[in-house]
Amino acid sequence: MDLDFSPAERDFRAEVRDWLSANVPDPPLPSMDTAEGFQAHRAWEARLAAARLSVVSWPEEYGGRGVSLIDWLIFEEEYWAAGAPARVTQNGIFLLAPCLLRFGTPGQRARWLPRMASGADVWAQAWSEPEAGSDLAALTSRAEPVPGGGWRLYGHKTWSSRAAHATHGFGLFRTSGARHKGLTYFMFPLDEVAVRPVAQLDGLPGFAELHFDGVRVEESMVLGEAGQGWSIAMATTSSERGLTLRSPGRFLATADRLLALARESGDPAAADRAARCWTEAEAYRLHTYATARRIMAGEAAGAASSLGKIFWSELDLRMHALALELLGERAGETPWLDGFLFALAGPIYAGTNEIQRTIVAERVLGLPR
Amino acid sequence: MNFAFTDEQLALGAAVRDVLRDACPPAALRTERRPGWRGLAELGFFAALLPPEHDGLGLGLTDVLPALEETGRACLPGPVAETAVAAPLLPKAAGGELCVSVVAPGQAYAADADLADLLVVLRPDGARLVQAAELTPRPGIDPCRPLFAVAYDAYEPLEAPAGPVLHRLAVATAAQLVGVAKELLARSVAYARVRTQFGAPIGSFQAVKHRLADVAVAVEFAAPLVWRAALALDAGAPAAGRDASAAKAAAGEAAALAAGSALQVHGAVGYTDELDLRFWLARAWSLGAAYGTSAVHRERVRAALLGGDARRWP
User: Which residues form the Acyl-CoA dehydrogenase/oxidase C-terminal domain (chain A) (predicted)?
Assistant: First the structure.
């Protein structure tokens, strides 16, 4: 057991740090949920990609550097410490891409991954439906085969993050009646989908509803086999809950800023809570180093990723809630307000924390269903 | 960067587990004062931190973490962490052979002093070795970890400064607390699977599931802080004392949460002396208070961080 970074890992950290300090936009970009901010974030992704920093852990042929998960965690620590922009491509690069790399054909990978890595395509996810949220397998949107090849999509998806401005979507559609085995994983361009933007708590359209009225998609837009959608999606959600979507770097940076705020406040009770949060961010970081090592050794993240999702989402919310208490009416003049609104969503998305606790109880601890 | 125990570290833990499974079953906690100690001594566990030239295993604190966790899981009585951690301080040849109890600064009583051949008294101005002390039993919460007021006339000064010893003792105790918490969780899960009410195992109810899931989260994220603290102490890292406090606080709080939930899940039978659960409940509380309560260690972390020492290691 050790916690020593190799010389190569230290060099990589220094390279990332130098590049970010020369390139991170100042002032920060406008919100990615505005039309202007979306394009600015997309342009930022192109700059990252030109430096081969947008997807460092992917194979080189798709725009990455083929580095290890540990290097990717180092990249993330530096990225968030530098105050770099939120990733407008995150649903694609963190959720769809792992599935494409694992279940996609060589043709699908070559067609979609490089464009995703550069921000040329921005992907939105389309899981939830009005009557299928936590009970995702109850979804009713469907795909019908077209004679001669391809499919038509019908139905109604909702809470689709980034879909107001994105170019493509991915999600599950029913291709037969079987609850889990009747689901198929589709990718689709958004230009023929009826998109109704839905404003979030900040008033900006971070969500959208998607209405499918016979949208035509090619056969090559099916990921895996028809009927395999649920198992492929579960592989995605385990990465979503686990270390790929919310790596520790983001929370370490928040904890550092919170500590500075608590120090300024001179409030001993706030200092106590801030110190606890700082330590918990450290615990998540250390836990993730251990998890990364297991994944690199070939183990699956599995149900244990639910433990992490509960921990980071509730930590993030506690940190932002404390910052808002300390700032009072000045909060809106700082990035903490947007951060708080973002953190509020953490215990809901990627499977609510109630669902996560049930998963932990049943699949990690072995309690009866 | 390989933040996982080595095969050797895990093997020592497994060997300790095997010894304690036979020699320290729950029934022994009611009848014996020091079950399992002979077997652990034969493994070299109490001399693990001594250099090979003093007949030790030459290991670091990190190397014995899985073994310490097993002593917590088994609720092993006696000054386990104290004897192992204090061994390198003692005069040559005594370490690893003699049983040691420790009085820490701010702590009035010595735990398990009735078993100890030697007493190490840690004071801000240095450590003292006491050969003969008068012991007065004091009431305490843990029947297998009795407390004693100590009075002594003579002592020898020890060369080791008290601070690092105390940090190592806190981290070793934290490793035991992780084991105690895991055992409390395992016993709660086992009971919730078989105890039936309203025609269903109580573990099928969401209120019970979610409570135990919270314990699992607390234990899962306390353990890496303990591992890091041991590595930091072994490496002499700059903020190792702060990290030791973070580890003791997190492990103590996780064990307290596990104890509270275990008692609630077991209900009235958990509140009896008849069920073995009581030993782990008491150990969670007694070790939680040993070598600095969670509140004391939280305060130390706060003071370090607010004072400007927010260095991360690594």
Answer: 227-365
